[in-house]
Amino acid sequence: MSLMPDVLMRLARWLLFAVVLVAFGLGVAGRADLPMLNAFIATCAALMLVGFLIMDPDLARERLRRGQTGEDPVRLAGIRVLFLVLFVFALLDIGRLHWSDRVPPALQAAALGLFALAFAWELWAVSVNRFFVPVIRLQTDRGHRVISAGPYALVRHPGYAAMTLMAPAAALALGSWWALAPALVLSGLLLARAAHEDRFLHGNLEGYADYAARVRFRLLPGVW
Fold this sequence. Notes:
The chain is mostly helical. The protein has a domain at 70-214: Four Helix Bundle (Hemerythrin (Met), subunit A) (Up-down Bundle). Helices cover 68% and strands 0% of the residues.
């Protein structure tokens, strides 16, 4: 595929994503006059545009391929459900129910900044790792190998590190205290899944044990 049609296809997919994102966010919240909600949606849309443009085409196809199976399917399903619960609950709280939508604006702004930084960190990981898929499996059909460039030179699972921060940051950026509950459970599941994937790669991916000896920490340098 030539460069221009490929770029146009990526932009079309991003536009569809952006339309769905706006419709979901404003539709669930039931209003469009919340500045931090609009800022959150704009931040997500802008960063996803970067994601669509930088992602390896083969990785994009692999992430969309149906019928993939792998390790730890129950926890993956729980992560996906909690991701949806987090955003639905937060949007309902700030737009319709007003149960706990008293997060100070300064804290919301700081949380949005943290969310954006974590999202950008994850995109950096995606840009250097053509095996960045949600299913834990040995991708022998795609020439699976150890990735040690970019953020992988600092920690072994930068994607999980980013998502662990993004969940509570999203709850606070949107302005819902109670949404922190599913967000923190989600972060806990992500930590557990990172540990599971690390054990799987140790036992199945050639060269991973040597890589782990060089890059000692899974998510946070000096801590874990």
